[in-house]
Design goal:
The protein is built from twelve helices and 29 strands. It has about 525 residues and is an alpha+beta fold. Bound molecules: guanosine-5'-diphosphate (GDP).
Amino acid sequence: MSTKIKQANIKTNTEERPPVVAILGHIDHGKTTLLDYIRKTDIAARESGGITQHIGAYEIIHTTSDGRTKKITFIDTPGHEAFSQMRSRGARVADIAILVVAADEGVKPQTLEALEHIQKSGATLVVALNKMDRPEAKPERVKQQLAEKSVLLEGWGGTVPNHEISAKTGKGVAELLDLILLVSELEELRADPTASASGVIIEAHKDPRRGITATLLVKEGTIAVGDCLVAGTAAGKVKSMADANGGALEQATFSAPVAITGFDALPAVGDAFSVVPDKRAAEEKARAASLAHVVPAPGGRAPDGKKILAVILKADVTGTREALEQMIAGIVHDEVVVQLVKSDTGEVNEGDIALAKQFGAMIAAFKTKVPGMIAKLAASSGVRILEADVIYGLVDRIKEECAQLLAPQVTRTDIGTLSVLALFKTSPTGMIVGGKVTKGKAEKGVKADVRRGGTTIFVGKISQLQHNKKDVSDVELGRECGMMITPVGPLPPGATIAVGDELTMFAEEMRRQTIA
Ligand code: GDP
C-alpha cells in the first residue's frame, strides 16, 4: 500500500474495515455448503436467536487461531450473474473472492469463467480446494490445472493464497477464514465511520405489504434510520433497518449488510448508494441520474444516420427492467435504433409524460400501473403508452413500432403490355389513348411504364379504362381499349405519349417491413 494512502488515513478518521467476500466456482463444487457451514458456526448468529433472513449477505464474527475476533461479510448470492452485474455497474463489491474448486473433480469450465470474473472485478483471489474428505480428492492435480491457467498458488511457485477444506465436515474452514482475514489485513481495508455513508445495493425487491426492501452493503461511513439516500435513479429515506438475523437496527457501519425500507423506487442491484443531506437532494440526484440516459436529439437521427425510436421504459421490478433493457438493446437493424430515454421501475407518472413529450418518446409500461389521470394526460400530450404484461409481447410491440419508422417495401408484378394505337388527348394532367393488349391484361388503377424504344419516358396510372366505350375494370389479352393515363409525379420536360409507345402495366404491393 502506498505511503500516500497511509498518510491520508492518518489525517482522516479511518478504521479497519471488515472484508466483503464473495464465493464463486463451478456448480456443485460446494459454494452453498461452504456459505451454510460458515453461517451455522457463526457465534453471533447462533446467539441472536433470530430467524435467519435471506438478505443477500451476512456478517460473521470469527475468532482467529491467535484469539482475535474479527468480522467478515459474505455475499451469499452465489452465481456469476449477480457478481458480474455488480461489476458491470462499476462498483467493486467484494474485496476478496473465494474460488471454490472441488478437489475430486478439479478445474471445470465454470471454474475458469468464475476466475475471469474475479480477475476482472479486481477482487483478491483466494482458492479453496474443497471436498478434501473425499477419497478421490487430488489437490495437487487442481494446483497443477490452475498453474496451467497461469494461476500459481502459494506453495506451488506462486502467491495466490489457498487452503484445503471440506465444506461438509468443516475441516479447514476456520483456517480459511483466518487466511481471509490475513489477506484483508494485507489489503489494509480502511474506512471512515464518521463519513457520509456510501456502499452498494446488493439486493432489492418489492413486497406487497412492506413496499420496497433493499439490502445495502455499507462500505464507508455510518447509515442511520432517518437518513436520506439515493442509488441510481431511486431516492428514499431510511424508514427501518434490520440485519440478516432480522434484528432491528438504528444504525449500521461498514461492511454491514442491512435490509432497509424507505426507497420510493426499486434501486438496481449493483448500483452504488450514498447518503445525502435531505430528501430534496436525494430526489434531485435521482432525477439527474435518470436524465443521464437521455438522448440528445429528440426524434432525430442517430449519429450513424439511423432513425431513432425513443422509448421510456417503466417496469414493475428491477429484474424485469434489466431483462427488458437487454432485449431492447438486442433489437438491431440497419435503419432504425431504439434509444432508451429513461428506464425505471414504478408507475407511469407525470414526469415520464413530460419527458416523453420533450423527446418525442413513447412509453413502454411493463406490468406497471398507468393511473387514469396519467393516461388522460398522455392522450392530451400526444404521448403514446404501450402496456404489456408479457416480456416478449412488449418487445414485439417495440419492434413493430420500429418497423413503422421504416419505408414500406414495395413489390412490383408486371400484369400486361399495351401497344398505343391512337392518341385522343394529351395534357400534362391526363392523356387519353387507344391501344391493344399484347400481353397479359390491362387493369384499371394500376401503374404503367410508358416506354419508347426500350426506355421509360414516364410513369403513369390508368385512371380510366373503357372497352367498347363502356367503363370496365380490366381488358383481356388481344382486345382493344381506351384509357386515361394520369402521370405519377411530375412529368419530365417534354415527355408525352405517342402512337407506337408501349405501356408495361404493373401492380404494386406495399408491405410494412418487419423486424426479426
Ligand atoms: P454449489 O452448487 O457450488 O453451491 O454446491 P453445493 O454446496 O450445493 O454442493 C453440491 C454437493 O456437493 C452437495 O451434495 C454437497 O453436500 C456436496 N458437498 C459440498 N461440499 C462438500 C465437501 O466438502 N465434501 C463432500 N463430500 N461433499 C460436499
